[in-house]
Amino acid sequence: MRATQVDRSPSILPADIPELSDDECLARLARAVETPDSARLDEVAALIGRLAVAIE
Which residues, 6 or more positions from 44, have their beta carbon under 8 angstroms from its beta carbon? Predict the structure, then answer.
């Protein structure tokens, strides 16, 4: 049987989140949730999603 290589890179990354290290992403998330602001919910969700992909 032939081995198939699977690309494990995330297929869905938010376009508005630049390439960040995990530490940079976590720091940005901490700043975003420090002060509740419903206008930043999309950013918070994108950062959480970015970190969740890294954990997998």
Answer: 29, 32, 33
